[in-house]
Amino acid sequence: MALSCVLEPALSGFNFENSTRNIVLENGSEEGKIKAPKPMKTGTTIAGVVYKDGVVLGADTRATSDEVVADKMCAKIHYIAPNIYCCGAGTAADTEKTTEMLSSNLTIFSMNSGRNPRVVMAVNILQDMLFRYRGMIGAHLILGGVDCTGSHLYTVGPYGSMDKVPYLAMGSGNLPAMGILEDRFKANMDLEEAKSLVSDAIHAGIMSDLGSGNNIDLCVITKEGVDYIRPHKESPFNYKRQAKYKYKPGTTPVLTKTVTQVELELLDETVQMMETAGSS
Amino acid sequence: MEKQHSYSQVKGVSTGTTILAVKFNGGVIIGSDSRASMGESYVSSKTINKLIQVHDRIFCCIAGSLADAQAVTKMAKFQLSFHSIQMESPPLVKAAASIMRELCYSNKEELQAGFITAGWDRKKGPQIYVVSLGGMLLSQPFTIGGSGSTYIYGYVDAKFKPDMSLEEAKQFSINALALAMGRDNVSGGVVHLVVITEPGVKHIVVPGDKLPKFHDE
């Protein structure tokens, strides 16, 4: 841990300070109960599959804010390391920041130790961090990567539980996606089969879940490198705007114009000398 | 063994489960099912590993919240490894169980996980310790745990014999787990067994269709 955690030094033992504070806050002060803020979910379908030469990760690209689609081309497959990528479901901000923090820690580790990070290391760091926050960080993650020990796919839950799996789907669309994966998954598939399986699983999620939609992104990770296909399949329902929303200058007529001079008085003037390195 | 009532209140992934450990002549068998559930109706994993190796000849089976159990066993593994380096000898099973008990008792308000620690050491041979939800530590010749254990208390009480052979103990464990998995909806999947003896550790998997059937028409 000394090699990688510059941003977050690991505390020894369990630290449950925040849970007592949370209970006090929720049980309310004199004015009334303070409700814990409801985390915003992305409503997502993400899936991952281990195949013959590596790992294929897939995700939809819709981010919702209650009933409105906030982002039609949201990127849910996050970079962790050159050989490790992570799909995130749950609270959008949490998955984004957690994966960024993980990626920074692993980069520092690589620089300090001269070694490429292993997928299991990423999983351990995530597990430690999410457990410490007792489920308050709503990040449901599927981590996939290829390292010197082989191709791996892991899932990490928001409470800090982890599981090593050959295939998995997460997010609000996970039930239909799991149906496709359970039906067609085979060990040691080849690339085209694996890509079409993940793509079909995400597609099932998109069709059967209101919170998932738009395009399908795929990320293929092998020993040789990463192929981030964004988008792999575009939604056939892309709506083209019927009219322009930009107006020419002069569209709104100007009726009157008044100019008011504002008088400013100079009260105080100070000069601060800056230390500069000698310039040529 | 205390009944664990709180499975409906476990947040996140729960291992509503059946776990057991049995001492036999020369070693210990520790076993579990492989189902992890979320809420009362979704099986989040059919193949979860509940037999966690904390040292060369010491294993822990976990029940309760998966996140809590994994965190505690990780911490225990680290502390046990450190302890064993300091003592320059393999740790005692009692030491492993003590570490788990310390973690469970000091954090009893926040954690929801119970364990069975079993293994072999040079001092006392095969041993089984139970660390329950609140941090109680008990040594027993055989023990069962998890939500599915309630259905097999009668069976194990009737069928256990001290000093069984390896084959008898294996059959005893497989039967007990199959009976529990047949009646408890949150236990299921395959049966994982680990046989721990002085020469080594052997992992046996019995798939669901190879389990013994008891009037299962």
Which residues of chain A sit in consecutive blocks of at least 5 with pLDDT less than 50?
none
Strand content of chain B: 25-35%
The spatial strand order of the largest sheet of chain A comes to 10-1-2-11-12
Structure annotation, total helices of chain B = 4
Instruction: Sketch the major β-sheet of chain B.
Output: 8 strands, antiparallel
Q: What is the helix fraction of residues of chain B, given as a range? A: 25-40%
Which class do the helix and strand fractions of chain A yield? alpha+beta
Mean pLDDT of chain A: 86
Largest sheet of chain A: 5 strands, antiparallel
Number of strands of chain A: 12
How would you summarize the topology of this molecule?
The complex is a heterodimer of chains A (280) and B (217).
Chain A: H1 17-27, E1 46-50, E2 54-60, E3 63-65, E4 68-71, E5 77-81, E6 84-90, H2 92-113, H3 119-132, E7 139-147, E8 150-156, E9 162-164, E10 167-170, H4 174-184, H5 191-208, E11 216-222, E12 226-233
Antiparallel strand pairs in A: 1-2, 1-10, 2-11, 3-4, 5-6, 6-7, 7-8, 8-9, 11-12
Chain B: E1 13-15, E2 19-24, E3 27-32, E4 36-38, E5 42-45, E6 51-55, E7 58-65, H1 66-87, H2 93-106, E8 113-121, E9 125-131, E10 137-139, E11 142-145, H3 153-159, H4 166-183, E12 191-197, E13 201-206
Antiparallel strand pairs in B: 1-4, 1-7, 2-3, 2-11, 3-12, 4-5, 6-7, 7-8, 8-9, 9-10, 12-13
Helix pairs in contact in B: 1-2
Description:
The complex is a heterodimer of chains A (280) and B (217). The radius of gyration of chain A is 25 Å and the shape is extended. Chain A is built from 5 helices and 12 strands. By secondary structure, chain A is of the alpha+beta class. In chain A, helix 4 (174-184) runs antiparallel to helix 5. In chain A, 42% of the residues are buried. The two termini of chain A are 45 Å apart. Chain B has 217 residues and is α+β, with helices and mostly antiparallel strands. Chain B has helices at 66-87, 93-106, 153-159, 166-183; strands spanning 13-15, 19-24, 27-32, 36-38, 42-45, 51-55, 58-65, 113-121, 125-131, 137-139, 142-145, 191-197, 201-206. In chain B, the strands form 2 sheets. In chain B, strands 1, 4, 5, 6, 7, 8, 9 and 10 form an 8-stranded antiparallel β-sheet that branches. In chain B, strands 11-2-3-12-13 form a 5-stranded antiparallel β-sheet, with helices on one face. In chain B, helix 1 (66-87) crosses helix 2 (93-106). The radius of gyration of chain B is 16 Å and the shape is globular. Chain B: InterPro entries: Ntn_hydrolases_N, Pept_T1A_subB, Proteasome_bsu_CS, Proteasome_sua/b, Proteasome_suB-type. Chain B: It comes from Cirrhinus molitorella. Chain B: It catalyses: Cleavage of peptide bonds with very broad specificity. Chain B: Pfam families: Proteasome. Chain B: Component of the proteasome complex.
